[in-house]
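Section 3.1: Structural characterization of target chains.
Under the original work plan, the team committed to producing a structural model for every single-chain target entering the pipeline before any wet-lab resources were allocated. The record below documents one such target. The sequence was received from the expression subgroup and is listed exactly as submitted; it comprises 268 residues.
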Amino acid sequence: MEIVQSKSFTHKFDQECKEENLRGQTVKFIVTIKAVRGVKLPELNDEFAKKVGSFESLSALRDVVRANLEGRSKADYEDGYYLKLIDEIKKGATVKYPPQVLDHEIEHVTEDFVARLAGQNLELDAYLKMREMDKEKFIAEEIKPAAINRLERSLIMDKVALTEKIKVSQEMLSAAIQQTVGGLQGSEDYRKAMRGKSTPPKQMQEAITLEAAGRAITQQTLARLKDIALGLAPELPVEEVKEKPKVVAHSATKVVAHSATKKQPAKK
């Protein structure tokens, strides 16, 4: 059959048909083809690779895709490994905190969950209605346990960082800031804040610096934990010279401004 062509056929419904008025009836159907649609995939060649990115060949594109998949697989494995490692530490630890801290963490977990729902064009009330669950029960049974886990893991990480004297070099902080700025550039809030500006506002620079510093410390702490678990951790030096925090903060602000400026497209 081709477009605009029609075809007729008859069908007799049995006595068990869901529609009562069709049970035992013989119905004539007339079908007309109005359109035919399909997906035509492009040929995988060097020309295709050049169109999807700055790749010279299909082989180069394959290498990047393979590296990305391997990187994601490794990151997923390490995330699971670190979570198990921290949970093992938690089994033998006593973690104490005031109830106000847990309440604050519950608020954060709830906000994160609501944001994820919003990304799926779904509101919390509609989600709870679909699950036939009220908000209080949802928070008590799902949000609160997640908040407790997140809070206790965070406190354990803080304690490990303090005990193991984790420090972040200026180079590590600079790399973390550039990574943070790069991740923010796709967000609408960042574009609005940067509209008509060559550098982020001071408040945003401070927030980026704090987030980047936290990320860098977390990475260093996890690396130290892994080395300890594998028996590869070097002994800590007996004496350590404390760094001046003001110098790091000042330098970090410069890195934020430089990273944001470097990433901005040239004005036409």
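The radius of gyration is 29 Å.
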